[in-house]
Amino acid sequence: MTWRWIQLAAAAACLLVGIIFMVLAVFGVNRFHKALNRMHAAAMGDTLGILFVFAGLIVMRGFSMDSLKLFLVILFFWSAGPVSGHMISRLEAMTDEELGKILIIRKTGKEEGTDEAV
């Protein structure tokens, strides 16, 4: 009986932490002005929020085939999320004219690009 209460408390704590991360990500997405900053806030909330929510569901269900499926969903989100975020950020970096040229410093010490170093 005591084990069930501990399991319920751990699952509730994981679910609560996951929901907090997701809510903070919503505020981060609405607070930031640039698209890349918004993507960072959304990615942090997405990866950590999904991890803790699904970890809470795994703890709640116990170790079974359902928890294995939830673990596989976590692995899928953790492998697909960064790839899609990277592709979207590259698109934003290539199409946004306000980002300017990237400053490249070679080993010889010469700088390329039109932006001046501040």
From TrEMBL:
Keywords: Membrane, Transmembrane, Transmembrane helix. This is Monovalent cation/H(+) antiporter subunit G. InterPro entries: PhaG_MnhG_YufB. It is a multi-pass membrane protein. The chain crosses the membrane at residues 6-29, 41-64, 70-88. Its main location: membrane. It is found in: Membrane. It comes from the Bacteria. One of its GO terms (molecular function) is sodium:proton antiporter activity. Belongs to the CPA3 antiporters (TC 2.A.63) subunit G family.
